């Protein structure tokens, strides 16, 4: 059985420099895709009125100043709250849904929906909140299909992160097995790689959140366990030793790196100026800390 280093790279915020206007563009596309899913499902849901009533109640108490032009991206600059869009206090969320035109002008209402949704698990992607709206005709497959159909973008304003470029080059020279593991979609990763000039042929695969238990992120143990299982199956099929100590995981989110490290996967935090290995917690220290608490 072959012993290989398996280098696994996050894509967004890792492969390329940030901030970039493409991230807000992506986030808007995701929110618009889910808003379209809501509108389409409301047409046939038997409990549409009940769901809209609950959303109207949430909307009435929602702090509208928290709905910004760039709601989700922690890396890009904050531009401030949307001013006076919801100035008419008599209008409900249902009114805005009914008045929507089905195009990019709906983006603020789409962001508002995202703000009112609750993911179906701590750390899961906000799109999973579509399953918690209560609609009787919506499934995980619907969320995946709308995400892939309507939230696929063309990256136009991204430049290679030279630190990751070097890491990829070195991994290729060592003969590592290289993968991309993303909480985005496979199509978006392939679009971004093309813009950056990376060949997908140099990677053994792109694993997205929909490949992991139907739509769980790497912020969840459930998602990482599903990722591990996929990697284990790949190794078994290709006569490669499956050992987590042989992995090298790169991500720009320090919390994800720490969580990966806790799950036994050697991890490297990617910042604009350096790539730094995250210390793997010592089980003795973890137990001692729990006792002290």
Q: Sheet bearing the most strands, described?
A: 6 strands, mixed
Q: Which range does the strand content fall in?
A: 5-15%
Across the major sheet, the strand order is 3-2-1-4-5-6
What's the average pLDDT? 90
Amount of helix: 40-55%
> What is the 3D form?
elongated
Distance between the termini: 44 Å
Based on secondary structure, the structural category is: alpha/beta
Question: Which series of helices and strands comes N to C?
Answer: EHHHHHHEHEHEHEEH
Number of strands: 6
Uncertain stretches of 5 or more adjacent residues: 283-293
Notable features of this structure?
alpha/beta; six-stranded mixed beta sheet; 6 strands; elongated
Q: Concise description?
A:
This protein has 293 residues and is an alpha/beta fold. It has helices spanning 22-42, 48-61, 93-99, 107-116, 140-150, 162-174, 186-196, 221-237, 254-262, 283-292, and strands spanning 6-9, 177-181, 205-207, 247-251, 267-270, 275-278.
Structural overview:
The protein has helices spanning 22-42, 48-61, 93-99, 107-116, 140-150, 162-174, 186-196, 221-237, 254-262, 283-292, and strands at residues 6-9, 177-181, 205-207, 247-251, 267-270, 275-278. With 293 residues, the protein is of the alpha/beta class. Strand 4 (247-251), helix 9 and strand 5 (267-270) form a beta-alpha-beta unit. Helix 1 (22-42) packs across helix 4 and helix 1 crosses helix 5 (140-150). The longest helix has 21 residues, at 22-42. The N and C termini lie far apart (44 Å). The relative contact order is 0.17.
């Amino acid at each position: 059985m072959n012993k290989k280093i398996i280098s696994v790279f996050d894509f967004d915020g890792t492969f390329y420099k940030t901030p970039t206007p493409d991230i807000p563009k992506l986030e808007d596309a995701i929110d618009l895709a889910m808003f379209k899913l809501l509108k389409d499902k409301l047409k046939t849901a038997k409990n549409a009125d009940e769901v809209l009533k609950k959303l109207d109640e949430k909307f009435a108490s929602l702090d509208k100043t928290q709905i910004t032009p760039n709601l989700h991206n922690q890396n890009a600059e904050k531009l401030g709250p949307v001013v006076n869009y919801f100035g008419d206090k008599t209008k409900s969320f249902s009114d805005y849904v009914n008045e929507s035109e089905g195009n990019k002008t709906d983006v603020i209402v789409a962001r508002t929906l995202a703000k009112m949704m609750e993911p179906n698990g701590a750390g899961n992607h906000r799109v999973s909140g579509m399953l918690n709206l209560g609609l009787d005709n919506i499934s995980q497959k619907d969320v995946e299909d709308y995400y892939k159909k309507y939230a696929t973008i063309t990256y136009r304003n991204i430049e290679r992160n030279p630190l990751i470029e070097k890491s990829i080059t070195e991994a290729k020279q060592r003969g590592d097995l290289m993968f991309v593991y993303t909480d985005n979609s496979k199509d978006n990763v392939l679009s971004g790689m093309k813009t950056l000039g990376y060949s997908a042929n140099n990677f053994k695969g792109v694993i997205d959140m929909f490949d992991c238990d139907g739509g769980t992120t790497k912020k969840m143990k459930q998602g990482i366990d599903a990722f591990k299982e996929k990697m284990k199956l790949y190794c078994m099929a290709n006569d490669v030793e499956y050992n987590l100590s042989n992995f090298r995981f790169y991500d720009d989110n320090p919390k994800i790196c720490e969580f990966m490290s806790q799950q036994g996967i050697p991890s490297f935090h990617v910042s604009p100026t350096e790539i730094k290995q995250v210390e793997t917690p010592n089980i003795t220290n973890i137990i001692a800390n729990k006792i002290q608490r």
